[in-house]
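Lab channel / #folding
Pinned by the channel admin:
"Please post every new chain as: sequence first, then the structure tokens as a reply. Keep commentary short and put observations after the output so the thread stays searchable."

First post following the new format, from NK:
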Amino acid sequence: MCRNIKTLFNFAPPATELEIRDAALQFVRKLSGFTVPSQANEAAFERAVAEVAASARTLIASMHTSAPPRNREVEAAKAHERSIARFGPRGG
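Reply from TO:
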């Protein structure tokens, strides 16, 4: 599950609110062991997602680097190449 959490710092354009929330959701899913919480745990689950997203937002905003921002398309292409090297090309 956590393999789906992507690096959000130092990209141009910056991470969106949706990307931050999606990463927080994946993190809470991993910690809780549930993809979808029960009705009894739904409020706690959503509160945890909101708190993790807020912490992630604060972290990203407070970090500094002298490196130039990374390009999302270039990084996605590199990840795709690594995937092909590891698993081979996908075919039908």
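NK: The chain has one domain: 2-87.
TO: also worth noting, Helices lie at 17-32, 42-62, 72-87.
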